[in-house]
């Protein structure tokens, strides 16, 4: 079973690239972030044509998340992150697919920091920790994947000095991320690439892609029930270099079959 995550940075603008990736790599589950599409204009028909069924949580022009599954209908388990009824951002959706609970997240960026956007980021991460504790208590195979907008360690960025003032790698952001892992979740990419140097994002500006000035902010966190079956994890880096690409590359894990 391959579970993948892809911040597509606008599904309408990048639909050909997205379809291309799905057909060429065929993940069992594909979690999308920043679809930037209202619910009624989501491209469900395009995915149906290539055998994927979908659920989604959209928002006009911003945010938006979706879960696609190959040949089966994802069964929605949760829409929106609990804990703040006034938070209307489309940043979270959760579904059951083939016996696995998959949560797709688009965590707030938090810039500029300090300020209300950074405060919102940290509060969102605490709400996420609470939800992950609930998922843990279910004792089911579970993956929480997506764009976390956190660079966990210096080894996860091409230049720590260049990003030192960014909300993505502030001590508070990193500490909040460590608290997620401390509850017993496994960061799949980090576990299989302990020396770092693995990027998932390259900015459009300043030739970042051409100079490989990237960093890792797209993560795949696995519950013990899945971590025990982790066989591989990686980044589909080449898709970042294609025409009209997202500024993120897809990330994925391979999980041995669950009996």
Automatic annotation (TrEMBL):
Q: Which InterPro entries match?
A: AP_endonuc_1, Endo/exonu/phosph_ase_sf, Endo/exonuclease/phosphatase, ExoIII-like
- Endonuclease/exonuclease/phosphatase domain location, by residue? 4-248
Q: Which residues form the active site?
A: 106, 147 (proton donor/acceptor), 248 (proton acceptor)
**What are the alphabetically sorted keywords of the record?**
Hydrolase, Magnesium, Manganese, Metal-binding
Gene3D superfamilies the UniProt entry points to: Endonuclease/exonuclease/phosphatase (3.60.10.10)
PANTHER family (UniProt xref) = EXODEOXYRIBONUCLEASE III
Please report the name of this protein according to its UniProt entry: Exodeoxyribonuclease III
